[in-house]
Amino acid sequence: MKKIFSVLLAVIFLAACKKDNYPLGAVDENIDFFSKREVKPRSQWNELDYLCDSMRQAYGIEIIYEYTPRIVAGNTFFMPPQYDKALPYTRLVLDKLWLKPLKENFPEFFAKETPIEFILAGGYIHFNDPTTTSTAAGAGLNAQFYRLGMGGVNAFSTNKAWLWDHIVTLYHEHAHQIDHKYGRGYLFDRVSQGKYYGIPGYASVSEAQAQRDGFWYGYGGYAPEEDFATNVEYMADLPEARIKELIAISQSVALETKYKMVHQKYLDMGMDLHKLHVMLDSVVYKVNY
Amino acid sequence: MLFFMKNMIRFFIAGLLTIALAGCEKDNITNAYINQNPDRLDKVSHEFKEALASSPTGWVMMVKSSLSQDVYTPIVLKFDTLTNKVNVTTVYGVTASTDSFFRIANGTGSPQLIFTTGSIMSSLYRIGIQASDITDHIYNVVSVSPDTLAIRGYRSGRVYTPEGGVIYKMFKRPADWSWADAGIKFDMTSADFRANLDNVTGELKVENLLSSTEKVLAFRLISLPANTNNSLRSYDPFSISRNIGTGGFAPMNYFYIEQYQKTPYLNTTTMVRSAPTQGHNAVSIYPFTSNGTNNANTNANATALKNRLETHYLIFKNQTRTGNNVKMEFEAYDQKGKVALRAFYDNLL
Hints:
The complex is a heterodimer of chains A (289) and B (349). Chain A has 2 domains: 46-156, no CATH class; 183-289, Collagenase (Catalytic Domain). Helix content of chain A is 52%, strand content 5%. Chain A has helices spanning 2-17, 47-59, 83-105, 107-113, 160-182, 186-191, 207-213, 224-237, 240-250, 253-268, 273-285; strands at 62-64, 76-77, 117-120, 126-127, 147-150. In chain A, helix 3 packs across helix 11 (273-285) and helix 5 runs antiparallel to helix 11 (273-285). With 349 residues, chain B is α+β, with helices and mostly antiparallel strands. At the A-B interface, helix 1 and helix 3 of A face helix 1, strand 5 and helix 4 of B.
């Protein structure tokens, strides 16, 4: 009698709790949980929505200027751009300065390395607290495989110096993305191993001193990540002759070694960074907008 | 005794059985309700959208600034649910002419109201507690009724703080809040408006309805030269150049207010000067570096004026001109949008 009871009990226990495994039902493999839940209906599109749509068709990149919960990051804060800045910014910086010449001049690099999302940030990145006003600049949003973003859109200006600085910074941020995708390489990190300045050391180093130490400027000496990105930034910013001249002046083997590594890495991806400089110079300085 | 023991074991087993059955009952969590009502969120968000559209003059959000104890800052939000544009009007400055957009998203548990592009709403979020207790540009919709829409900031501020900010109970814009209509009537940049006002010493009688107190200030408004105006702009926390990432406000204009308290008598009869900002039909006394103009690079006099008035803004109600005499009436509101304070200006001419 007791045994029967025990068996019965065991059966009840097992059966009763079985459904626990999937309390909410089986997972439906066909649902794309990362897809956009609500696409803006065409009837509500404004000029910028149409522009973003045609750029998505032309370049395969989703440009995001409206912030929804999908955009929110956990511990960093961004402010959405003002519409009247986002519109000319997308038209000029993203289309005319970045994507169009990139697709025409470096088709292989464009096809393989263009992020699929680009986020416009009105201001800059605010770490931990949206109300901080300290030096929390940083274009941010680069630490992801598939998307890139730029801050400072609310400061958009057709001033040549602003445009130049912004597009060069965009390639700096994109270099971080390349870094995250493929890595800088084991050997790159070994070139200046042990010589990085760290925080706050990097901020007080002059450019000439940094170049003697093997970095393009102080910030490049902050850490290997920035070292890699500043190599791309300097090759985008300065003509080939000036780069070689600075390397000669610096007499730094490390600077030359890393320059060659980064230049070759980009060549392998289909982009000659010296030609990138020429291209950027032509679209920024040789055309009036 | 043995019989009793046997019974006890039976009771024990029966008890166990009951526990086993009841214990597992709570595991029967299902999605039945959600599955059977797939359009549940669509319905709620549609209801919310209809409510937003039901007040053509807009909805009012009263936000708390650290500048005042009992006076709250009104924000009038006019939603166009066809184009998803939102017009934001508040006292801190004049709204820029750019479009600002919003969206209603279904969210996960409740619909969300999102100010998706840069606007006064993201500016307030960005600037923090001196302007408002807004802590996000994304809001969960808490409740919808014909007269009240309750929304709550999705985040409560900086990182590592609990989810959910302040709950705002928005109400329909009162009919007599014509100050929030388009068109700037209080305009120290207009020569017509300044006539018999600029640099004329009059009186401002301030009635605080919450504390039932009254005071009279000697009071004059003075227009600013362009270079001083530009210099103040470069310090203004709301301007894009100063506080990049905000936006929503047109470039600010300022003027001087000089005042001292006459009654109840204070032992100071020297005019104290500060430089408030011209809001949307409002005087905004928002202290920032260098607008407390008697002391260079401090905001002390702006703070002093705000404290003396017991409000950080005065909303311009109307102006009456009789010959050279100019009278103006101002108001400030409490948390529910009721009048907390009235001020009457007379140029004594």
